[in-house]
Structure formats: structure tokens, C-alpha cells
Design a protein that fits this description.
This protein is of the alpha/beta class and 401 residues long. It has 15 helices and 10 strands. The strands form 2 sheets. Strands 1-7-6-10-8-9 form a 6-stranded mixed beta sheet. Strand 8 and strand 9 form a beta hairpin. The C terminus is likely disordered.
């Protein structure tokens, strides 16, 4: 995939990624302290942007509560999903905004080491982070802070929070069963503020912007969207409240659109035309923006076949450490592939029900979410495939078992 990054109104608004340009725009980094930082995150509704949308202020409060010998801060840049490039775009165009956010959180929690997890398959991200850290060191910044760089393995689940913690602790970069959120019991069993690059950047911008925040009153700020078009991913920064008509073309709006990425849901054709890029507007449609991955169904593609290909990919990307992943996802992928090919196979809905809620991490549930939304949105297409036809013109169906 090729990456296109558009200038944005806030996070991606700088013409250059260097420290001098960043400081001229946002001023020196400030460390407002725990109370002020939590209040800023609360007041400006800063949410996690890794997919779950968990309030950043709640993470801060949880990590700071109780007695702990040490606390940790982890900036997760290893997106994992091939259709997401927002954090990579941030580290290339505005790395110091991300690092400023990490500095603020580290100071608020009394942390002296910040862990940065970068994707091993994208050397340009590692180079951008390394260059930014060198600039800060040369300028004499962050003298009381130590930065540690970790390279995440290539793979869909490598960016999952427990997989990231496993990597930092020197074990295989795969998810494990976790009974507590990282903010309660994370790195080395200690409270850990773990979030993605966009979350740290949003927090820093809120503190440094001095009231100049785009978006709406209910949802201040912006959303970084990774929009797949052919073999390119366009990263676009959109203020909350922006109509989808200003983001996607009429042709794209007239086709089904996958919102939230490979663990997301299909929006029916035309459903986004009157909607806005906001948490509330998406909830009205039963959708979640998640990590901001947006995939309009390609021209001439069959939604069932496309979903079958993604489901097969997800089945191969599991950690293989629990039954729902090791057995359930391959079976589900096979069943959905049979459905897309017009063959009689196992019951997709029955398999989805068997997998749902039983995984050690979120991977099985995310895959089921995708399959279930396709089952609903492409209901008419399923009926066609069952009689050996396809609205996209696919052929060679075999309806035998």
C-alpha cells in the first residue's frame, strides 16, 4: 500500500515535522500536572483512538490510583491492521506532538521511562521517531526522561495491548489472556498508561492549543481517517461534525463502506450520505468509528467476496492460543468463503455464535463483528449467491457441498 498524507486543520497542520517548526506553532512543551491534565482530557472529551474509544482521562485516573512501586507509559505506534496508517502519518508529519503528549503523561504519573512501540515493517516510521528523539536531545529537552524504542512484529494482532506488553517484557509479540486493563496491571504487573500515538497527540494539542480547538462543542477535536482507495491509503484529518459528503465521493457514498477496519462493520450503500464524522452520528447508525479506518467497497467488487477475503486473512492472523482463534476462525472463514462462492457449507451464523465472546483477546469478536454486519448488509447478495448469481458479475459458482 502507498501512503498519501493530507495537511489537516490541527494535528497534521504543520508544513514540516522538525522541532523548530513544531515549537514555533505550539510553543514549548508544558507539564501541567496530573489534575490539570485530567481536567483537560475530561473537558475536551479526549478518547482513545486505537479502536475502543476509551476515555483517556479514565485511563489516567486508573493508572494513578492505588499504591504502586512504579508506573509506566507506552506509546503504541504499531497499528497492526494493514488498512490503518494514521499513527504512521502522525510520526512522519507531527512526531513532536505525540512526544509532547507522552512527556505530559509521564510527568503526571511520575514516570521516567517512556516506551515507544513502532511497526517493524515500516522503516520510515522508525526513522522519523529516531530523528525526532535526536532533535529533542540536541535541543536539551526531556533531560529527565528516557525513551526506549521497541519494534513490533508484522501482524494484525501484534498491536493489541497485551501483545505490546509481551513484546516489551521480552516475550513473543502475541496477545495473551489478560484479566485486568493495562492501567490496573500492565507492564511488569504495574499500572501502565498504554495508548496509541493519536491519543497522545490529541491530548498534547488540547493542552497547547489555548482554546483553538476544531470540532463541535459536544465532540471537540478531530479524527484521523485512513481511507483505502485501490492500492493507496489516504490519511485525512477531519474535524468532528464534518459531513461524510465532504470526505467521500458521491460514488463511494453510493456503495457500502466498511467503517472501523477489518474488525469493523459495513455501512449500507447510501447510509453515510446524511451522517457526520462523529461518535454520536455513527452510533445513530449502529456503527463505531474505531481506529478511523474507512474502506469503500471497490468499484465492481462483490461485498461477500471482499468480506470472505478479509475473514480468511483474519483467520490466518490469530495468535492461535485459544480455541475460538485456533479452530473457530478458520471454520468461520471457510463457511463464509463457501457462502461467497455459492456453495453449501457450514452455517455462518451458528459458527459466529459459537466464537462470539469466547476468545482470549478481542480478535475473534472483531472478526465476528465483520461477518455479522456483512450477513445483514449483503442479505440480497447472499440470496443471489445461493442461486449461483452475483450482482458484481462474478461467476463459476458451484452450489454443491
Amino acid at each position: 500500500m502507498l501512503l498519501d498524507i493530507a495537511r489537516g486543520p490541527w494535528l497534521l497542520g504543520s508544513a514540516q515535522p522538525d522541532l523548530v517548526t513544531h515549537r514555533s506553532r505550539f510553543g514549548p512543551v508544558v507539564v501541567p500536572g496530573f489534575g490539570v491534565l485530567v481536567a483537560a482530557a475530561d473537558r475536551n472529551v479526549v478518547l482513545g483512538r486505537g479502536g475502543a474509544g476509551f476515555p483517556f482521562a479514565t485511563k489516567l485516573r486508573t493508572a494513578a490510583s492505588g499504591r504502586a512501586l512504579r508506573r509506566h507509559v507506552v506509546v503504541n505506534v504499531s497499528e497492526g491492521e494493514p488498512a490503518s496508517s494514521k499513527d504512521a502519518a502522525l510520526m512522519v508529519t507531527a512526531p513532536h506532538l505525540v512526544l509532547d503528549g507522552a512527556v505530559m503523561v509521564a510527568d503526571a504519573l511520575g514516570v521516567r521511562t517512556v516506551h515507544l512501540v513502532v511497526p517493524d515493517e515500516h522503516a520510515f516510521v522508525t526513522e522519523a521517531v529516531t530523528r525526532a528523539l535526536a532533535e529533542r536531545a540536541e535541543a536539551g529537552e526531556d533531560r529527565r526522561l528516557r525513551w526506549r524504542l521497541h519494534r513490533a512484529s508484522t501482524g494484525f494482532v501484534s498491536g493489541e495491548s497485551s501483545a505490546v506488553l509481551e513484546l516489551i517484557e521480552g516475550r513473543e509479540n502475541l496477545p495473551v489472556v489478560s484479566w485486568h486493563p493495562a492501567a490496573v496491571k500492565g507492564l511488569h504487573g504495574q499500572p501502565t498508561l498504554l495508548s496509541n500515538a493519536e491519543s497522545f497527540a490529541q491530548l498534547a494539542a488540547v493542552v497547547l492549543a489555548e482554546g483553538r480547538i476544531p470540532g463541535t462543542e459536544a465532540e471537540p477535536g478531530t479524527r484521523l481517517l485512513s481511507i483505502t482507495r485501490g492500492n493507496r491509503i489516504a490519511v485525512q484529518e477531519v474535524p468532528h461534525g464534518t459531513r461524510w459528503q465532504a470526505v467521500l465521493t458521491d460514488e463511494e457514498l453510493d456503495r457500502p463502506v466498511l467503517i472501523g477496519g477489518y474488525h469493523g462493520q459495513w455501512a449500507p450503500a447510501g447510509a453515510l450520505r446524511e451522517a457526520a464524522v462523529s461518535v454520536a452520528s455513527m452510533q445513530d447508525l449502529g456503527l463505531v468509528l474505531g481506529a478511523g479506518v474507512v474502506i469503500p467497497l471497490p468499484v465492481g467488487a462483490c461485498g461477500l467476496t471482499y468480506t470472505a477475503q478479509v475473514t480468511r486473512y483474519l483467520a490466518g492472523e490469530s495468535a492461535g492460543r485459544c480455541g475460538p482463534c485456533f479452530n473457530g476462525l478458520p471454520a468461520l472463514a471457510t463457511a463464509f468463503g463457501d457462502l461467497a462462492a455459492g456453495r453449501v457449507g457450514a452455517d455462518v451464523q451458528e459458527l459466529a455464535d459459537l466464537v462470539r465472546g469466547r476468545g482470549a483477546c478481542a480478535h475473534p469478536d472483531g472478526t465476528v463483528r465483520l461477518v455479522s454486519s456483512a450477513w445483514t448488509v449483503f442479505e440480497a447478495e447472499i440470496a443471489l449467491h445461493r442461486v449461483g448469481r452475483c450482482s458484481a458479475g462474478e461467476s463459476n459458482f458451484s452450489r454443491s457441498a
